[in-house]
Fold this sequence. Notes:
2 domains; twelve-stranded mixed sheet; Phosphorylase Kinase, domain 1; outer membrane lipoprotein receptor (LolB), chain A; mainly beta; seven-stranded antiparallel sheet; single chain
Amino acid sequence: MARSVVAVSRSPRLSWLALLLAAVGAAYAAPPEAPPSIAALTVCQPVTADLLTKAFTAHDTIIYYAQGEIRDSANGGGPTTVRIYRNGRQDLTRREYYAPGQPDVVIIERGRERWQKQPDGSWLHENLLPQMLIGFAQRLDLLTANYAIEPAGERTIAGRQCWGYNILPKASGNPSRLMFIDAETYLPLRTENVNGLGDLVSVTNYSEVRYVDSLDADLFRAPSGNVEDDGIEREGPMSKVDAEAQTGFAVREPDYVPDGYRFAGALTLRQGRSVAVHMQWFDGLSIISLFKQRSGGTLPSGSGWTRHHANSVSWTSDGFSYQLMGDIIPAELSRMRDSVR
């Protein structure tokens, strides 16, 4: 089969987007099912699967305002100020990002609708989807199977007592995470993400957090003027068979997937006559994404997802273009690419 490798590269992630990576656990989780039982206990600091459940879902159960700073090595490590307004009880979020030399960014999310303010003052609207077929209980099973959870001491952050936890991969080449969570609300107030090579790629740290009974509804009001829809129809998550029926072409899975990763579902993206499929594999913490569409298609493929992944490889084959992304080391990503038949 003819194959032409186009590029292997690190994605040019903007620093303000590191928050999405830091919050990926909450973003991808389905509503929690029955919490797992206690895994271990230390004298002062609990280490339980139930506690992890609370940390990954705290964003969805409380109302709060927070302000802090993001530093992302992919953007030179410079600081980005972030402000978060979150009404978890109504699934409303407002994020504001301010970085020297970059346009200010405002994102409003109401359930599965998102509006992002553009530099010219207009708003880009898109409809979001649940990302995976894997439920929360399965997520915790994968996390504890593929990662070791270790206490990392206590620290005061934003005036709050926090417990620290290292999430360390059992298999080399996978990313790791250090989280400090509020000991009372379980909200992560500091997150450090390390890639599979051991490089610190992003740090999110809140300097202020206020838990409140309500927030001004105008903060979350959907923009009513100068709004443009992104024009992409999304469906999923679905099985591989259903994705093939939706796209009209074979959705080829790689023969090789790193240990611990499970197929988490496929999404389809359609814009006019162009259609792409987005397949995902998940190990409880890290996601690997594979996009496929006919060569010359107008869809942006994985460009919007590069913000979630440290490494990317693109190629063309038999009239199709592919983009494979993940936080696994480049050698593993290349091995996975070479197994796509």
